[in-house]
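Review session, final week

We close the course with one last complete record, chosen because it touches almost every idea we covered. It is Lipoprotein, a protein from Dyella monticola with 146 residues. Go through it on your own first, then we will talk.
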Amino acid sequence: MLKMLIRLAGTSTVVLLCACASPPLKPKGSNEVMKRVCIHTNPDVRVDDFVAVMQDGFKRHGVASHVYDTPPDTCNFIVDYTAERSWDHHPPYLSHAEIRITEHGQLIASAVYKVNPFMFPRIDQWSGTKAKIDPLMDQLFVGFHH
């Protein structure tokens, strides 16, 4: 029994160490590693936690993010986004979002979230921003390789 616990404890430690280290991400067709992105502020977006949820998503993938009104010329990876809210006799909810990453002006990744108006009941409609945007952030990195 003690040997089994020691073996399990050793395995758990290895798993935790592996989960903490993120290998560098490279977009397909790029020689550049994406360590940092510049998020271009969109003042038209009225979803309070949208940028914070995006930043958490980048962090989860090992990418630092900084928010700018005008991204500096030194930033190779720029993130642009849109988000729209809708309502139907209830409080407003996030109904549509798009996130795009460009490298030196070339689109390298994009993802779209949209509430399906034909699905009833629209369960995801009332989910929070994080529940809707986290899968979108994961989708952005599908074409990247380590």
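Two points worth writing down before the exam:
Confidence is low (pLDDT under 50) at residues 1-24.
The first strand starts at residue 36 and ends at 40.
Good luck, everyone.
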